[in-house]
Amino acid sequence: MLVELGLIRAGAVVVPVNTGFTVAEAAYVVGQSDSVMLVSSSSLRGRCLAEESLAVTADPDVSVQAVVTVGPSSAATTDLDTLLGSAESVSPQDSAARAAAIGPDDVVLMLYTSGTTGFPKGVMHSHRVIGNMSDAAARLELTEDDLTVMYLPLFHIFAVAATVTFMARGAAMVLLEVFEGGASLDLIEGERATVAYGVAPHYLDQIRHPSLAGRDLSSLRLCLAPGSPDLVRMVSEHMGPAISVYGMTETTSMTSLGSVHDPLEVRAETVGRVLPRSKVKVVDEHGDEVEPGVVGHLLVQGSPVMQGYYKRPDATAEAIVDGWFRTGDALALDSDGYLRFVGRITEMFKVGGENVDPIEVESVLMRHPSVAFASVQGVQDERLGEVGLAHVTVVAGETVDGEELRRFARDQLASFKVPRHVVVVDQLPMTASGKVRKFLLREQFLGEDA
């Protein structure tokens, strides 16, 4: 974080890299972004990141001129202390002049999309996104007395935005290098955290942890829990008052944000109201704005929206049309200004002509006491066009089979929404930011079914 803030003040563009990437994947991001310096921890989870960083620089498409490592390393890299020591050769006047030359529209951050469906794209954001984070801090009513335990990966927009949001109000952040349910609860309880950030896998692990019942989590006044309505209700019941949030990498994480002062049903069923610096509209397939409460394609405009995809004018032109960013998400905007998230337009599928929202089906499956997590998508079917495919993981010590889960789903869903195929797996392939890599599950299922 210290290096990142220093680079920003010097006018550099920061490009966070997913620590779960292989050397080849990291080389793609470092090379495509035209990065000239690579900074990494010397090691992580038994991996020698210093050596991997040097391997990244050997890629012919990479133009890195210096590799800096944090922590002891025998690799031929520059250590952080050496880098910081070189700062003494720069005068305060030169440093101030460099900072003063930075404009609000200059690119400061380039985050790469998660790549769940293909090669990641570099999302360019300017310094103006600070305003959106300040607005989020106000909606969250953050003060210097607040503290959060951050276990979201710092290369993901949700965590990047959170760090700026907390700094905007002088609030504290305790970092946990690797998430584990019990360890995160230890810190939340021990540090008397007031705000929790997480996604569904984090909260589910915490709520289902055997030590939860004996914990004192009364310090939590707010939990940010983007996900299904059931998740917001569950977190509110077991940890602290939860709100939902809507956003994506291209819109600086937060386009809309709930309020802890709203009734639980509003907090669960909506993703809150739009933050001040964003404008939204919901349109139909013809691009015409729909009536309040009608589901359509959400478009976003304003300073929190990206400047574009780096060196991808084709993708930028497809994503931003007439100044409006096309989210690819289906939402409804009610007359009170609350947004209700329905799902990814590209992930919804049709069974015999009937629309099915994967999130609705996943929520039902995860109500089964033996199910830890569920992922649902459509796969081709000769007679119905598409049918549902569900992959589920099971709570430790429990057992369940696919037919039992289908019977469970039939009691709560229309018959066309019940997954035709249910596969129980040990684990789901996830990105580091908590998204299921559904295309891998589809490929595996189709390969086994062939």
From TrEMBL:
PROSITE patterns the record matches: AMP_BINDING
GO terms of molecular function: medium-chain fatty acid-CoA ligase activity
Gene3D superfamilies xrefs: 3.30.300.30, N-terminal domain of ligase-like (3.40.50.12780)
Family: Belongs to the ATP-dependent AMP-binding enzyme family.
Native organism: Nocardioides marinisabuli
Protein's UniProt name: Fatty-acyl-CoA synthase
Top-level class of the enzyme under EC nomenclature: ligase
Annotated keywords: Ligase
Ranges for domain AMP-binding enzyme C-terminal: 360-435
